[in-house]
Amino acid sequence: MKLRQSMTTLHTWGGLLPSWLLFVVIFTGTLACFDKELEHWMRPALHGSSGPASASAQQISDWLADNVSAPLHAYWIHPPTERTPFWQLGWEEDGSGQRGRAVFDPVTGAALPETLGGDFFFTLHYNLHAGQIGMYIVGLAGVFMLAALVSGVIIHRRIFKDFFTLRPRAQGQRAWLDAHNLFGVVGLPFHLVLAYTGVAIFVAAYMPAGGMVAYNSDPLAFYHEVQGGYHRNELDRPAGTPVPLDQLVTAAQQQWQSTDTGWIIVEHPADASSVVSIRRRDPSRIGSPQDTLSYDAFTGELLHQQQTPPAYRGYIWMVGLHMAQFGGSLIRLLYGVLGLAGCMMLVAGNTVWLRKRAARQTPGLHLVQALNTAVFFGLPVASLVLLWANRLIPAELEHRASVEAWSFVLAWLAVTLATLVSSRQPLARARALLGVMAALALGLPLVNFLTAPYSHLLATFGTAPELALVDLTLLICGVLLAVAMARYRPRQPVPAARKTECGESEVTV
Amino acid sequence: MSILAFVTAVAAMLCLSLAMARHHRDLFGRPPGRPRQLLYRLLGILGTALCLLLNLRDGGGEIGMVTAMGQLMGAGILVGLLLARVATAGMNNSRR
Q1: Membrane-spanning residues where (chain B) (predicted)?
Q2: Does A321 touch chain B (CB under 8 A)?
């Protein structure tokens, strides 16, 4: 078998089989570029609040002491920033390892109602909300994507000649192949870099053997040496009186000559060995500076200043390049557009596979069709339903975030069931789902208007552009989806003489 | 300045596409002659370099390079979609 033939087989099957998983990873990764903006949008209680930010790190720490009785392994606090104008708190319980999260109003210091926030999409992106197993699955999908991209370049005979070519009126699979090539080839550097860095970020978790051997099966020792970080083992002695966190934050800011404070991490706060680590935040660079100061929690003595080894700085640069938290909203917008191009590449690629085999009625055709609909339509519909749920579920409801998660899951299940029920009418099904997505996207700003007096487009247009842009994006997407639905009609059957060349004459996503 | 850099990227991609016979024919009804093809290629390369320089000046070497690459890729997709639109409109007109 020649190289190009073998690469064609690899590209076809190595691209198709993980494509639905890759769509989930790329789509949620695209949304995760705007996770902080979405998080802000999903917290309408913040939008009406005004006044000077008066809450402090110590106030947040006191809330934790008053509301969580279990002994803590560690907790971490992040002060408000331009993109996240609220205090964030997370904690991990000792023994059980159970984690919690809360967010606070920067003016009053009051805890805000629960929501999944933009973090939901970020976690779905990198581990499918399935912990380490999920991380491995996503990593495997990333490796498949790299293989599909490289083999795609090898098999594409006219990669430069057809660089800008898109012929939407072409018959059969040609139009979809053009779309697959356009979104794949023009965005190739982005797809390659993001797939590679996505896999490389967790390389120590995917291949832990070397580190485990070199560090006597102690992964913490490995990470601390690699990062140039600081850790003090627990002394199992009762804690003393802690220095107020705000005092340590001020000391750190004086040391840096900067007020850009990132995460404040308090390790084993109930033990005499407790350490407070304060990280500097610098979104103006691709790799965050990793400039952490560690203080004794009870004396305030500076114990350690992180000196990051060059190799770790290189690693952090790659992490930063993948996460797109640098360079402002222009970078996130570009990542968003190119992420959507990646989604379109997958949709078009799968449609090419279908149309090539439609005339032959290849086994598995209906399965691929059903999976396409369940994933390519199901995930966007479920994401929109999640945003609807965020506005419709009462703020005071207990376990509000879980109800939001269930709304997401049930919406996706509903689309999957509808796919199974209407398996004989793929065109009508796709058209109906385009209509559902358009209605959900266009209806959301209206629901926002009716339920959140300080959050809707009219209230935020001049004052909070980051919130207004979420509503505007929904409106634009809604209009585009409605137009797509209106134009989405089966073409006239192709005459028999031409059908062999063109394959199936209708779109079968 | 980012807008200027993006406009430059779109212009560069448009020039590079017009150096190709198919797209030139879609827009002007005939393929480009050899001198014009070389001119389009030259303008495309210069536009790409200018987009890169503008981004490097605004964002520095590190972020400017990433922004320029993103803008060039985004511009390439935009030009591909615009050319498809023009070609489709041309087909509709010729049918009438």
Answers
A1: 37-56, 68-87
A2: yes
